[in-house]
Amino acid sequence: MQLPTDSTKEQGQRLQMVSLLKEMGIHNPTVINAMESVPRHWFMDPGLVSHAYKNKAYPIAAEQTISHPYTVAYQSELINVSEGAKVLEIGTGSGYQTAVLKAMGLAIYTIERQRELFKKTQRLFDQIRLRPKKYILGDGYLGLPEDAPFDAILVTAGAPSLPKDLLRQLKIRGRLVIPIGTDAQVMHRFTRTGEKTFDKEQFGEFRFVPMLKDKN
Ligand code: SAH
Q1: Has this prediction a pTM greater than 0.70?
Q2: Concatenated DSSP letters for 54-68?
Q3: Of 45, 74, 103, 134, which residue is most buried, by most CB within 10 angstroms?
Q4: Is residue 119 one of the residues assigned to a domain?
Q5: Does residue 215 belong to any structural domain of this protein?
């Protein structure tokens, strides 16, 4: 199968999008390079492709959304890992965040609970030859105990409360980046400081689709 196209116009729009992200405070060079290199329009519904480089969230399949580019970049910075780190993503969705994390040189494990979306994104991953270490249909509340511990866990859906299983799957000094809240969410970062101790930091307010239990 052929790779989808990435025209010079789209590449130009992408650089403009990244300039905006820098103005908004994104500064990590690895994140910036990744955002410049991943064609976001590959991850959008065909009818919305012309909007791919706006800093907006858009509908994908199964009533889910592709996150704002700013949110993707911001969470990618907050995990604060270096090349080769082992990262678990919860909420694969369109696969865009997965592709950005891959472009950052990370080893990615990713979980999606929605079967329809899971299959659609699997087809896209095959087409664009994006190969996470593992791509799983399952319930992210459980994490991935058989592959733990992780350097970072990044949750891309809004959790009503903190899923304790995820904390247990962090390495010492590992980080969990997770939006917590119901209507709106506050971005949280938990850093494991010891066997049973964690530091908690809070960042701005965001809006995510809800993190739901069980797979569908
Ligand atoms: N990073 C994605 C965000 C998609 S929206 C993107 O930019 O496209 C959040 C995704 O989390 C949705 O696809 C939703 O189905 C998924 N999700 C919600 N609860 C989940 C859970 N418990 N486990 C795994 N995925 C979940």
Answers
A1: yes
A2: SS--EE-STT-EEPP
A3: 74
A4: yes
A5: no
- Amino acid letter, 209: V
d(CA 157, CA 176): 13
Of the candidates 67, 76, 82, 161, the residue annotated as catalytic is 67
Question: In the numeric block, which tokens belong to residue 160?
Answer: 């009503």
* Nearest-angstrom CA–CA distance, 162 and 76: 19
CB 124, CB 45: distance < 8 Å: no
Whether 37 is a known active-site residue: answer no
Residue 213: inside a domain: no
- Can you give the residue range of the structural domain that contains 128? 8-206
In a domain, 43, yes or no: yes
- Give me the CATH number covering residue 169: 3.40.50.150
| Res. 194 pLDDT band, cuts 50 70 90 | very high
Ligand 1 neighbourhood includes 124 CB (under 6 angstroms): no
Give Cα 115 to chain centroid, integer Å. 18
CA distance 49 to 202: 33
Total structural domains within the chain? 1
pLDDT band at 195 (very low <50, low <70, confident <90, very high): very high
Does the CB atom of residue 132 touch ligand 1 within 6 A? Answer: no
Q: The tokens of 145 are what? A: 């105990």
Distance CA 214, CA 91 (A): 12
